[in-house]
Amino acid sequence: MTDLGGRAETARALGVHRSRITRWLEDEEPDARNLRKVEALRFVLARLLTVYERESALKWLTGFNAQLGDRRPLDLLLAGRVSQVVGAIDAEEAGSFA
Asked: CA–CA separation, 73 vs 61, rounded Å?
């Protein structure tokens, strides 16, 4: 399971109850919709960790971003707009700023 600082933070980000995260970690599979969110979050966080240290990566993910029209990358990611978020990471890595 992707860790955004703790189970409560991960649950809040995914829009589920914290107990759901615990069940997913122990013995339950997420439903298809939440599985897509979890996989997208894992992918993007792994990509971010090639650019930033963990704390900075989490701040980037949850902060407002000029590359994304002053929206939070996490919000776009959970709305299924993974390619936009990855594009912003690529721009950060290349040193391009809006």
From this structure: 5
